[in-house]
TrEMBL record:
Domain Ig-like residues, every copy: 59-149, 154-244, 259-347, 352-439, 444-526, 534-624
Protein name as annotated: Neural cell adhesion molecule L1
Compartment list: Cell membrane; Cell projection, Growth cone
Chain ranges passing through the membrane: 1144-1166
The organism's taxonomic lineage, starting at the top: Eukaryota, Metazoa, Chordata, Craniata, Vertebrata
GO cellular component term of the entry, any: plasma membrane
Membrane-related topology note: Single-pass type I membrane protein
CDD domains named among the record's database cross-references: FN3
Composition-biased stretches (Polar residues): 1266-1284
GO-annotated biological processes: cell-cell adhesion
């Protein structure tokens, strides 16, 4: 690293810039150089990151000595920094004080600090004024002048014990009289147990150490009042002789006494105090009752921050006395007998203190230095300058140096002017010294800002890119962009004095790379500016009007630059809202804020803040509590008339939600009902309304207010208003005839509301007359309610009818008549000429002749076509009539009264039908016409039933089906179609016609084992092909059978659940599980499970002992392919020692029973194998086909043969030994069918038989067929649900 001397460069940092600058930059540089070459006071502050090796520095005092008063040890501190390390010397009383000449002084290395103890020699020799000097090659710094004051340690003279005797209520002072010392001791009054004497308003310790009693009590008597003193400077403690205080009780009532000053005495006193010191004023008063002291400032306000009351108000404490504290302070002590006052006059003076201190700086050669030194004090101090500890008056004069009004000026400085200057301020209270150095140095220019700093800013804001530099003289900084364009020509661009570049109202076009350079030093740095989009709130919170107790939801959605992270904050009244675990008041679900259970205190402004690292956007909404309006009041009726009134009211409080409308309700008191009903609605700004009324009624009114929240409670009801009677205004409506019986006219109408009676004695006048032949005369009668019945009028005769309202005042207007009819009767005759025309196999057209209207005897409603399906055409006519009647299917088609033909569809093809037609009216149906017989032609059949797939090999597929449930004719055969399923497009459809309708299975060969197929089978009749039965599947793959994989174990107390993954399109394999109890009852014996099938996927091993360990082994063909160890849950069972189970007689008995049961089983199986085969066809009558439903584990039932029905019929009646034995199941011998290759069987075992085969657990099927060494032959077990292992893989 290069070294440097003042005036030489010490290195540079940054990168070089091109030497050729634009002409504009060159002119600007020359102008700035010309300006900076002029003399100026430009002090240099070296930044911390400026790199300069071994930088020299003038000395600076870092630890000043302090004046002390000592009676034992003396320590004066003087420490300084600087480079080179400064040396120290002392002056005492203006003369050199050589530390090295005094062997008793101990000097701290590297400092000017020294120490001396009283053990070495008398410390009085060191009394005096001291000054410390710290020097190196750049100058000398001078410390403050301090004083060492010495005194002998205090001593306590022997004293006599003191006793005070006073009357109760008198005042007394217990004096301490401590030994004199420059520094007063700390005094405490204690008893002989070293407990502090309790001080209070009555008992007070003064600043002089005495204990003052405002008045005494009998309980103050004691003989151990001890004054304890501690001298901090002498490190000494004393205890005075205990004082005895005897308070004699008064023989009479203690007399009260006026307050009187104990300390200070008199009414006035004066104090002089220095600025910054601590001042305490006392006010200790005697009297009975205890006087209460009060402090006031007579000539101003007391400072509340620096003046405090202590010791129950007897002491006024000033901390850091200020000039403003000078004045008069009065203490007033009062009780019920009077007052006592004392006034303190406080005068404040000040030792010198700095108003403005000179600052140490670095300067470049040729600059002008001005050092300001301003001090204050009372009286005003005198200011004098020194250089390196020598007064300027004693130094050779220099025309470049001058002092005026305390300001030291140095012009055109050079390297020789480097020195430490002292400014000393002095008055009668002391002096202070300020050191400041002037360091004249030349430093090379450096750019202190790191290179390639990134700057990010939001569009529209101001960007400021730093380019801090340092050097002596100060370097000139220039900026340019990537295109070397002038930046200062833009009004938005400003270069600051510190070198930073400011761009106001930035846009995305301002993004890019900027270069800051110092051309004279040929160094530069780059800065990269990136401008982001402004954060904008696009969906601000709304002003919500919320009902009390409901929730309010604010939404705040903002558009944020995707490169910026942001957070959403919510505030209420400026306070941040936080999620509380105590309650659910606020829920934050960005971008929503949910305020739950809104109450009055939740009203206010809510602000959302979207905050990024660069900007913030905010928007506010509010919550206003709204509620139902208060009910209106004082409803009043004005301007009453016969049929109307005016109602007015006074609105209630709206609760922040304006009233939208008022509802006027009325209660009619003259009618039976007393319900209030809505009369009319008016706008929310309306407070009166005209109301129309009906005659002969009494009304009350009330008003309800409605706002956005809801409806108010009703107002109080108005007074009752009654209207006079009048003739009816209207007649009843809905006048009609509803005559159900023949020869009867029933007249009905809607009863009028009682409110429309308009008067007393209300009734209805009913009028009728024949439409034809009766003339204009009306028949009439009166009634009070409908209906009105007129008899002897004939069947279905037309009448003019009308009903008029009448009351005691008069009649309503004459009503308009309407047509009505008398009652109907059923029709007399059926339609004639009924015929049928065949359209297709399911549709016909029925025709008939129109009916004579006279025979209808009522209003013709229409015709009914009666159809009866009498079964297929091929059914034998000699079937018993009862069975035919059960199978008849009847249907009725209704047509309109004007129709004479009807097309009827959805009939059953190839069936025999009869048809007849009848007429109906409102009274009922007439007789039907004679049945007409017709036959439907053949149709296409329905899809075949139960299409099943079976794969004997990987290239073959066997299809089995049952005939269509509805052949719809004579079945002539089937059509088999199949094709490969491919993803791109349909493959060609292969067609296999089957002309024999009795064929129900087909085997397809040479199929692709790697493809899936879609199979379709259709039935055929002479009418064509029916809809297909469709299945998809693939053949079963040959090769190695699938063994269980991914076996998992779940352990319980007495069982273990085993599960595994079944293979897809693989032939299944049978296997066993062997298990061994390792530590429980029966341990050491292997147990073999029933035979399992790999397609089961699950098996439960039961009957285990709780809390025992087991070893499980999976075996296939006597080879182990998986094993594990498990431990059952629960507590273990201790083996029972001994018992009858180990006796020989018990073992023999169990053996005999087992042999007997085995013999019975053998007999049962032999008998069953000889003749116990059941007909499946009979079982199908009462059970669902087992192939049509999946078989569940542990479910057993029947077996059936897949051979022809002839074989089943031959074996249906053969007896079985198990018919009378409870030891056998109904399923017969399984071995016969398990070894048969000519018959495929579906085996479903009964639970009782399974329990005989299983030696492991109850209710677990044991369907193991005779074992085979080869896996190729198919096996049939309950585990594979009765299907051969080569069954097809089906969807």
């Amino acid at each position: 690293m290069p070294t440097s001397m003042p005036g030489q460069p010490v290195g540079s940092r940054g990168r070089c810039t091109p030497l050729l600058l634009p002409l504009l930059h060159l002119h600007l540089l020359l102008l700035l150089l010309a300006l900076t070459s002029r003399p100026s006071q430009a002090a240099i502050d070296i930044p911390p990151n400026y790199q300069i090796p071994d930088f020299k520095k003038p000395p600076e005092i870092t630890a000043q000595p302090e004046s002390i008063t000592a009676s034992s040890d003396i320590t004066l501190t003087c420490e300084a920094s600087g480079n080179p390390e400064p040396t120290f010397r002392w002056e005492k009383d203006g003369s050199e004080f050589d530390l090295s000449s005094d062997p008793d002084l101990k000097v701290t290395p590297g400092t000017g600090t020294f120490q001396v103890t009283a053990e070495d020699q008398p410390i009085s020799l060191y009394s005096g004024n001291y000054t410390c000097f710290a020097s190196n090659e750049l100058g000398t710094a001078v410390s403050n002048e301090v004083q060492i004051t010495t005194e002998n340690p205090p001593t306590l003279q022997k004293e006599k014990k003191v006793q005070f005797k006073v009357e109760e209520g008198e005042s007394v002072v217990l004096r301490c009289n401590p030994p004199a010392s420059i520094i007063p001791p700390h005094i405490h009054w204690m008893d002989d147990k070293l407990h502090h004497i309790q001080l209070n308003e009555r008992v007070t310790k003064g600043l002089d150490g005495n204990l003052y009693f405002a008045h005494t009590l009998v309980e103050d008597s004691r003989n151990d009042y001890t004054c304890n003193m501690r001298y901090m400077s002498a490190r000494t403690m004393f205890s005075k002789e205990p004082i005895t205080l005897v308070v004699k009780p008064s023989n009479s009532v203690v007399r009260n006494r006026r307050p009187q000053m104990l300390r200070p005495m008199g009414t006035q006193s004066s104090y002089h105090v220095l600025r910054g010191q601590t001042l305490e004023l006392e006010c200790i008063v005697q009297g009975l009752p205890t006087p209460t002291p009060q402090w006031v400032r007579k000539d101003g306000e007391m400072s509340e921050t620096r003046i405090f009351r202590k010791n129950n108000g007897t002491l006024l404490h000033f901390s850091q006395v200020h000039e403003a504290d000078a004045g008069q302070y009065q203490c007033t002590a009062s009780n019920s007998q009077g007052t006592a006052t004392h006034v303190y006059s406080i005068a404040v003076e000040a030792a010198p203190y700095w108003r403005k201190e000179p600052v140490s700086q670095l300067y470049a050669p040729g600059e002008t230095v001005r050092l300001h030194c301003e001090a204050d004090g009372i009286p005003s101090p005198r200011v004098a300058w020194s250089m390196n500890g020598n007064p300027l008056s004693e130094i050779d004069p220099d025309s470049r140096r001058s002092v005026r009004a305390g300001v030291l000026t140095l012009k055109n400085v050079d390297y020789s002017d480097t020195a430490v200057f002292q400014c000393k301020a002095t008055n009668k209270h002391g002096s202070i010294v300020a050191n400041t150095y002037v360091y004249v140095i030349e430093l090379p220019a450096q750019i202190l800002t790191p290179d390639r700093n990134p700057y990010t800013v939001i569009e529209g804001q101001m960007a400021e890119m730093e380019c801090k530099s340092f050097g002596s003289p100060r370097p000139v900084v220039t900026w340019e962009n990537e295109d070397f364009e002038s930046l200062l020509s833009s009004p938005r661009v400003t270069q600051l004095s510190g070198g930073s570049l400011q761009i106001s109202n930035v846009s995305h076009g301002d993004s890019g790379l900027y270069t800051c350079s110092i051309p004279k030093a040929n160094i530069s740095i780059s800065a990269e500016l990136e401008v982001f989009n402004r954060t904008v709130i696009v969906s601000p919170p709304l002003e919500l009007r919320v009902q009390r107790g409901k929730s309010a939801i604010f939404t705040c959605i903002a558009k944020v630059d995707p490169k910026l992270d942001h957070q959403l904050l919510w505030r209420r009244a400026g306070q941040k809202l936080i999620d509380s675990s105590v309650d659910d008041k606020y829920t934050f679900a960005d971008p929503d804020l949910v305020v739950a259970d809104v109450q009055q205190e939740d009203e206010g402004v809510y602000t959302c803040e979207i905050i990024t690292d660069l900007d913030m956007a905010q928007a506010s909404g509010s919550i206003a509590i709204v509620d139902f309006p208060d009910p209106p009041s004082r409803p009043q009726i004005t301007t009453p008339k016969d049929r109307g009134v005016t109602l007015s009211w006074t609105p209630g409080d709206e609760h922040n939600s304006p009233v939208i409308e008022f509802q006027i309700e009325t209660e009619v008191t003259a009618v039976e009902t007393d319900d209030w009903r809505l009369l009319r609605t008016v706008a929310g700004d309306t407070l009166r309304a005209h109301i129309d009324l009906r005659p002969f009624l009494s009304y009350r009114f009330r008003v309800v207010a409605i706002n956005d929240v809801g409806m108010s409670k009703p107002s109080p009801a108005s007074v009752v208003h009654s209207t006079p009677a009048a003739a009816p205004d209207s007649n009843p409506v809905g006048v009609r005839s509803q005559s159900m019986d023949p020869d009867t006219l029933v007249i009905r109408w809607e009863e009028m509301d009682q409110q429309n009676f308009n008067g007393p004695e209300f009734q209805y006048k009913v009028m009728w007359r024949r439409v034809v032949g009766a003339g204009p005369a009306w028949n009439s009668n009166f009634t009070t309610s409908p209906p009105y019945v007129v008899t002897g009028v004939g069947n279905y005769t037309a009448f003019d009818i009308k009903v008029q309202a009448v009351n005691g005042i008069g009649l309503a207007l004459d009503p308009v008549p309407t047509i009505g009819y008398s009652g109907e009767d059923v029709p007399l005759e059926p339609p004639m000429d009924v015929g049928v025309a065949l359209i297709n196999s399911t549709t016909i057209k029925v025709t008939w002749a129109a009916i004579e209207k006279d025979t209808v005897r009522g209003h013709l409603l229409g015709y009914k076509i009666h159809l009866t399906n009498r079964g297929p055409r091929s059914r034998h006519h000699h079937e018993e009539p009862a069975r035919r009647a059960r199978e008849l299917q009847n249907s009725v088609v209704v047509v309109g009264p004007t129709e004479q033909k009807k097309v009827v569809g959805e009939l059953q093809p190839y069936s025999r039908y009869t048809v007849s037609v009848s007429v109906f009216n409102m009274k009922g149906d007439g007789p039907a016409s004679e049945p007409f017989v017709f036959h439907m032609p053949e149709g296409v059949p329905s899809p075949p039933v139960s299409l099943e797939l079976d794969s004997p090999s990987e290239t073959e597929m066997t299809l089995r089906w049952r005939p269509p449930a509805q052949p719809n004719g004579v079945l002539t055969g089937y059509l088999l179609q199949y094709q490969q399923i491919v993803e791109t497009e349909d493959s060609p459809m292969q067609v296999e016609p089957i002309d024999n309708p009795k064929v129900t299975n087909v085997t397809l060969k040479q199929l692709d084992p790697h493809s899936r197929y879609r199979f379709q089978v259709r039935g055929r009749t002479s009418a064509g092909e029916g809809k297909p039965a469709t299945r998809e599947g693939a053949t079963t793959l040959d090769g190695v059978p699938y063994s269980p994989a991914n076996i998992s174990v779940s352990v319980g107390e007495t069982s273990v659940n085993l599960s595994w993954a079944s293979g897809e399109r693989h032939r299944n394999v049978g296997f066993h599980v062997r298990y061994l109890n390792k530590n429980g009852p029966g341990w050491g014996k292997w147990v073999l499970s029933e035979k399992l099938d790999s397609s089961q996927s699950f098996y439960q091993l039961q009957g285990l002992q709780p809390g025992s360990g087991y070893r499980l082994v999976f075996i296939y063909n006597n080879a182990t392919f998986w094993e594990t160890e498990v431990h059952t849950d629960g507590a273990g069972v201790m083996p029972v020692q001994g018992g009858f189970a180990t006796e020989g007689w018990f073992i023999g008995l169990v053996t005999a029973i087992a042999l007997l049961v085995l013999l019975l089983l053998i007999l049962c199986f032999i008998k069953r194998s000889k003749g116990g085969k059941y007909s499946v066809k009979d079982k199908e009558e009462g059970h669902v086909d087992s192939e049509a439903r999946p078989m569940k584990d542990e479910t057993f039932g029947e077996y059936r043969s897949l051979e022809s029905d002839n074989d089943e019929k031959r074996t249906a009646s053969q007896p079985s030994l198990c018919d009378d034995s409870k030891l056998c199941s109904d399923d017969g011998n399984l071995d016969d069918y398990g070894n048969s290759n000519s018959v495929q069987t579906e085996v479903i075992m009964d639970e009782s038989l399974a329990s005989q085969y299983s030696g492991i657990r109850d209710n677990v099927p044991e369907t193991e067929a005779p074992d085979s060494s080869s896996l190729d032959p198919p096996t049939y077990t309950a585990a594979n649900q009765g299907l051969p292992i080569s069954s097809a893989f089906l969807d």
